[in-house]
């Protein structure tokens, strides 16, 4: 009972991290597999389904959907990439998928730490053209579906490394969650890998956490929240890679 309670508290914490800092979703699959004993393919499928709900919540009231027409190549490629990644997750060795999730958490934690130490870049490059958007969308779609994440945890670091406009990068990261979650969830559902009851429970825990995280971010130093999230991501990455 204590382990189950801890698991749900950590899933809610992941939601709070998403609501406050846009990263943290990579924590869900490790919690499901290690604390609740959910098989890895099922955990990835459940996480993808839950992120469709949290993605819709993240977009509520932000006006981000009005920008969809500007990111067409990115979103279309992410849809294809996510369907491909969800299919690959079913037959890739579990250890390989586990290492990918651990590596993604570790890299995301390092990125969060670097963001805390770096000033705003003085050089901002133009937004990627259609070919670059397609490449980004495919990579983020495949990688996110393989790890059961929503997209921002991969897309934001990549766009920051490319020195793209921060405001537009955040909007793109919010929008990309929906095609990735939709394609990955559909592929998992057709293969019979989704536990819909568990997916609904994870979605509720994430949304409650995201709502609390969004409210917390309004009255708390965002850098402190980023530091806490980075610490959890680093610990999760090390846990998955070296345990």
What does this structure look like?
The protein has one domain (2-242). Helix content is 78%, strand content 0%. The chain is built from 10 helices and no strands. The longest helix is centred in the C-terminal third of the chain and has 25 residues, at 166-190. It is globular, with a radius of gyration of 16 Å. The two termini are 23 Å apart. The model has no long low-confidence stretch (mean pLDDT 81).
Which labels suit this protein?
mainly alpha, 243 residues, 0% strand, 10 helices
Major sheet attributes: none
Strand content: under 5%
Tally of DSSP helical segments: 10
Secondary-structure element order, as H and E?
A: HHHHHHHHHH
In the predicted model, the low-confidence regions spanning at least 5 consecutive residues are: none
Number of strands: 0
Sum up the overall morphology in one term.
globular
The rounded distance between the terminal residues' Cα atoms is: 23 Å
Average pLDDT, all residues = 81
Query: From the alpha-carbon coordinates, what is the Rg to the nearest angstrom?
Result: 16 Å
Helix content: over 70%
Structural class: mainly alpha
Total domains, how many? 1
């Amino acid at each position: 009972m204590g382990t189950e309670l801890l698991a749900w508290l950590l899933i809610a914490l992941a939601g709070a991290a998403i609501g406050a800092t846009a990263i943290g979703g990579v924590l869900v699959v490790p919690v499901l597999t290690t604390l609740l004993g959910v098989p890895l393919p099922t955990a990835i499928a459940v996480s993808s389904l839950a992120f469709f709900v949290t993605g819709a919540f993240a977009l509520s009231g932000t006006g981000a959907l009005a920008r969809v027409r500007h990111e067409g190549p990115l979103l279309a490629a992410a849809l294809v990439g996510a369907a491909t990644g969800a299919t690959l997750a079913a037959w890739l060795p579990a250890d390989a998928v586990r290492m990918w999730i651990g590596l993604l958490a570790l890299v995301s934690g390092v990125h969060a730490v670097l963001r805390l130490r770096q000033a705003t870049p003085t050089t901002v490059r133009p937004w990627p053209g259609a070919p670059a958007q397609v490449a980004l969308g495919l990579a983020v779609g495949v990688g996110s579906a393989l790890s059961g994440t929503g997209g921002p945890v991969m897309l934001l670091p990549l766009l920051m490394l490319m020195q793209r406009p921060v405001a537009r990068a955040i909007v793109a990261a919010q929008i990309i969650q929906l095609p990735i979650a939709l394609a990955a969830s559909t592929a998992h559902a057709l293969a019979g890998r989704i536990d819909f009851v568990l997916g609904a429970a994870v979605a509720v825990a994430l949304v409650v956490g995201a709502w609390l995280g969004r409210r917390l971010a309004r009255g708390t130093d965002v850098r402190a929240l980023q530091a806490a999230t980075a610490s959890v991501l680093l610990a999760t990455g090390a846990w998955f890679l070296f345990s």
